[in-house]
Design brief:
The protein is mainly alpha-helical and about 170 residues long. It is built from 8 helices and 4 strands; from the N terminus they run αααααββββααα.
Length: about 170
């Protein structure tokens, strides 16, 4: 029986954490010409191997940041005021002032199907997760380094990227 994306993450992340962290930190000082194309190729490979609906770990253990636009759009979709939505499910993070969920898993996650009940109007942070398309890549290493511990697709993408770069680039 094939392992699920979450099983892959739990098995491989602890073993690869340090080497992938070192790999990502190299981008702080090194520029690789054509990195965006390499990221796109690694991303495409990762998405062939991971179906988010078999995992939804991001929705279970992380919280998106809700923007003012998100609050307006989602509360209207739910037939609530922004204040009602905030009071019911959200809080302001004391460390950085971001608006986030009060608890995990996300209140909008159907735990049986891994579907998002507000998918059509989900927060921008969710819609762009795991942020592979953010440019330039090396400005967002810290985000990928954080996400490899939660997201099997990110772990796979960074592994594919590392394999490609290690095979064709001398640090």
């Amino acid at each position: 029986m094939a392992q699920t994306p979450l099983q892959y993450l739990k098995k491989n992340y602890p073993k690869q954490k340090d080497s992938l962290s070192v790999f990502l930190k190299k981008f702080d000082d090194q520029k690789i010409i054509g990195i965006q194309k390499l990221v796109e190729d690694a991303s495409a490979k990762a998405w062939k191997e991971v179906d988010c609906l078999t995992c939804a770990n991001c929705c279970k253990v992380m919280t998106p940041t809700f923007t003012k636009k998100d609050l307006k759009r989602i509360s209207a979709f739910l037939g609530m005021t922004e204040t009602e939505m905030y009071d019911k499910w959200l809080k302001t993070d004391e460390d950085n002032g971001d608006i986030v969920n009060q608890k995990q898993p996300c209140q909008f996650l159907d735990k049986k199907t891994n579907f998002c009940s507000i998918y059509e109007v989900r927060p921008h942070d969710c819609a762009t997760f795991p942020h592979f398309k953010r440019k330039p890549f090396n400005d967002f290493n810290h985000i990928h380094e954080q996400n490899i511990q939660y997201c099997p697709a990110t772990l796979k993408m960074i592994n594919h990227l590392k394999d490609t770069i290690d095979a064709g680039f001398e640090w």
